User: Which sequence fits this backbone?
């Protein structure tokens, strides 16, 4: 299995060669093709040059580990550097890690093993599960990281313990077709929100604070984080098709019932107004007109709101209206029949029988209209 390791660098001249060597050492026993891709944002300390020089070593040595340096012209942020690396990557599996020796390269084989053995799509090296740890971070930094993690957990519904990890591996094909915002540091978080149905696993590791160079996390990175979370939050809400099927199904059923309840109200109000306008009107006539009004308002609301169908082409809409009215009439018949059977044969009290019958008829109505009137899959 070809592998790509992505190393984003900004001013890591004191770390980069050690970093490359440690990865090489970790990958050699695999005896399989791998590439290391360094994405440097024109570091003023000459990281790219040092890395490129170190790369020549690889030409003569192990043929199956290659090293490439991608140079960008300016500092554009960590996520965007990782993404640039991913676009260059030829491997089926991609590993992303920091290049300041905070992430131990000897964890990589364990991550790959999880991908292969447990058939995972994403493996996250985690500081926050049993066995994981952070070494050398001051209290303030720990607090910041924990808070950011909690924010992701509660606002985005992230289940894993360390979504802020900068150390993770994934099968490249799972991000096919996904558009990344790539603001700030949060590539993994964005992946966790946008990739649906991925099998994810966390394995523990110890994060060791850098010995050389300085962290690039500053107030801009924190601000970018809040911006990224906000965008991802809106992404989750504005893309119902990305939600879980059960949630989508229930939310549609909820809308359908709300519309149904509004129909009852329309029915009563119309019948009442008719009675007031034409004092001599036969009450059954008033009821029939009321029902017609409520079926019409129910239809329009369900079309626009419940099923979000904005196509009002004449023929199609008429056909939908006919089906909807037909199902409503059918539902009413079922309801009457059920009440009769439940009371007469089932010995159930009338109020309870009515509730059961209304529930059954409206569930049936919802499903029939979903499938036939608005042409959606029933479970979708
Ligand atoms: N190319 C490029 N461009 N690389 C960058 C940039 C950038 O704009 N900003 C940072 N990097 C590189 C650094 O050179 C380093 O290799 C890696 O990204 C991580 O940056 P650090 O500045 O060392 O981050 P940190 O150690 O403070 O933060 C760690 O913890 C965070 C979660 O709490 C990292 O592991 C982060 O990835 C993680 O999100
Ligand atoms: Mn670091």
Assistant:
């Amino acid at each position: 299995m070809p592998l790509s390791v992505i190393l984003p660098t900004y001013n890591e001249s004191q770390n980069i060669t050690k970093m490359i060597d440690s990865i090489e050492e970790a990958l050699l026993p695999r005896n399989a093709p791998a590439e290391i891709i360094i994405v440097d944002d024109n570091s003023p300390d000459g990281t790219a040059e040092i890395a490129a020089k170190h790369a020549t070593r690889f030409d003569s040595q192990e043929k199956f580990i290659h090293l490439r340096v991608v140079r960008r012209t300016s500092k554009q942020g960590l996520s965007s550097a990782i993404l640039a690396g991913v676009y260059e990557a030829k491997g089926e599996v991609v590993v992303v890690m920091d290049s300041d020796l905070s992430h131990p390269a000897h964890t990589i084989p364990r991550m790959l093993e999880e991908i292969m053995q447990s058939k995972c799509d994403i493996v996250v090296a985690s500081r926050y599960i049993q066995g994981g740890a952070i070494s050398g971070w001051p209290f303030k930094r720990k607090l910041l990281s924990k808070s950011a993690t909690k924010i992701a957990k509660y606002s985005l519904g992230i289940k894993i313990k360390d979504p802020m990890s900068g150390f993770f591996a994934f099968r490249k094909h799972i991000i096919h077709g996904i558009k990344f915002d790539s603001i700030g540091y949060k590539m993994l978080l964005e992946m966790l929100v946008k990739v649906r149905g991925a099998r994810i696993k966390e394995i523990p590791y110890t994060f060791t604070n850098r010995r050389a160079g300085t962290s690039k996390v500053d107030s801009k990175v924190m601000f970018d984080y809040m911006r990224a979370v906000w965008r991802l939050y809106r992404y989750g809400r504005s893309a119902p098709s990305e939600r879980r099927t059960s949630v989508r199904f229930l939310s549609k059923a909820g809308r359908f019932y709300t519309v149904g309840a509004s129909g009852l109200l329309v029915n009563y109000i119309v019948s009442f107004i008719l009675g007031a306008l034409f004092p001599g009107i036969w009450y059954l006539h008033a009821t029939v007109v009321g029902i017609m009004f409520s079926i019409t308002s129910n239809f329009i609301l369900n079309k626009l709101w419940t099923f979000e169908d904005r196509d009002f082409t004449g023929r199609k809409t008429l056909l939908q209206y006919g089906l909807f009215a037909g199902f409503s009439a059918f539902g009413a018949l079922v309801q009457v029949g059920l009440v009769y059977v439940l009371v007469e044969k089932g010995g159930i009290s009338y109020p309870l029988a009515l509730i059961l019958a209304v529930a059954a008829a409206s569930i049936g109505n919802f499903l029939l209209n979903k499938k036939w009137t608005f042409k959606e899959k029933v479970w979708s």
DSSP finds eleven helices and nine strands in the chain. The pocket of guanosine-5'-diphosphate-alpha-D-mannose (ligand 1) is lined by residues 8-10, 12, 39-41, 75-78, 81, 98-100, 102, 145, 164, 166, 185, 210, 215-217 (CB under 6 Å). Residues 245-277 form the longest helix (33 residues). The mean pLDDT is 91.
